[in-house]
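Cont'd.
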Amino acid sequence: MSAALELIHLCKSFGTQQAVNRLSLAIDPGEIFGLLGPNGAGKSTTINMIGGVTRIGSGEIRIFGHPVRRSARQSRHARRLTGIMHQELVADPFFTIHQALSLHPGFFGQTRDPGWYHDLVERLELRPHLHKAMNHLSGGLKRRFMLAKALIHKPKLLILDEPTAGVDVELRHTLWDFVREINAQGTTVLLTTHYLEEAEQMCDRIAIMKEGRLLALDRTPNLMRSVEGRHIRFTLKKALKKLPDELSGLRAKIQDDGFRLSLHSPNQMTVFNLIDLLRQRGIEVADVDTFAPSLEEVFLQLTQPEPSEICPR
Amino acid sequence: MTPSLPPHDENFCSRRPFFTLLQKELFRFLHVYSQTLITPVIIASLYLFVFGATLGERISVVDGFSYAQFVIPGLILMGVINNSFSNTSASLFMSRHLGSIADLLVMPLTSGQIVAAYTLAAMVRGLIVGTSVGLISLCFARLPWALPLAAIAMAVLSSFLFATLGMIAGIFANSFDGLSMYINFVLLPLIFLGGVFYPISILPPFWQKLSLCNPLFYLLDGFRHALLGVGEMPLWISFSFAGLFALLILSAAILLIDRSSRFRA
């Protein structure tokens, strides 16, 4: 079975700047795949090349086995299978939501499916706003419309470029719930987001990019395990004034007027080892919380510049 | 090997993206009809009033025809050309400016289909304005319509030529100012100096020769020739020039849509 999306040695440069550098990855059908990276990592350029907004520099893109090529005629099948929700509102200001959603399937060679149109409008709560023009839409409404537009021609691959940027918590939940439903019905999802918690919850696999290159690609739990150790928070019976010297290498911090001690414990050190160590220093522990490393830590560990990369002043 | 298409593609029609884009472009100018249709017709009507009903009675430039009869073909073609050009240039520039061009770029459309859809919609607008001006001109003067098919062909060819030229301007314009510069400093001088209001034969020899370099002259003269039965150039020369220009501009527009980084980065 063909991969839903396959990128092979994909490159793109703008002038002397290499935006995407030999990026290779494959997304399985039915997956929710996260493409993460700091600003300027090359995520949007990659998405734009997949969708046809930007020309491919070099390398190959295949969508369900159909090539994305320079020629629109040769990319026709791939384009029909893809729906993109762009980062910014992409819509002609002359149209209302209803007009835009009615026309859009035709751009992909299809007639409007009234049942599907009705489902999208209801599920994304667009019904009361159908006759509003684009320049009268609120931020949240724009996002809902953009998602409906990306899905109206029933794509097999849905690409979401920062779909929840600037969206309130409630709408964010609505959008993600809907994306999960669409995915459960068989649509493959590729998403980029700066909300790493969302990526952690949504994605089966995650790729992390920086400066156009792929830094990591793995199943989300495996990526999280790639950061050594975990966070431990001790609640203390008595306030601690000064950190014991033994804890200095563990990024230890005193909080809550000395009643909390947070530290990062390496894998080889157990909670019991730490409690023993504290007890030897006369520090009594009342409670312990442990936290696995978050995706944010994996992300920061991979994307933050190495000390050698930082230019001296 | 190309895999078989998924079931939902049974519904697919390869011509539908083109017709949908054409429908969208038609809707776009019809939606703002007061700006795209009524305003140019009113402006042309004012010209007709000034040159047809007032000044026209005191001027004679071609034997056997009133000035109103002379100037009407020019005013009709000016409406066709101006509006065909403005439609494609403004639509494409606005799409680039507002970012909605991303929608166009992800569609399964060839460069030729994109040019054809934009051009056809612009031609419809240009020809609606031209026809309206022609109908209003009946209040001022009757034209002999010597070669009606040739007149229609020249109007269609002119609208086609300037619609494709408008696409090129829409691709190159960087701002609203830049876009209006093409209209005010290129298109309008070409129209006015191409013989809308006077025959070039009344100009001094140097300006006559210079006017022959103006492609608009051939369109205007050809159209007037077809309507009045007299022109400054044989009709076949006007059609040959117009056809050649149209082919050149069409090739350039398709090439730019296909290759230019201003259209697709």
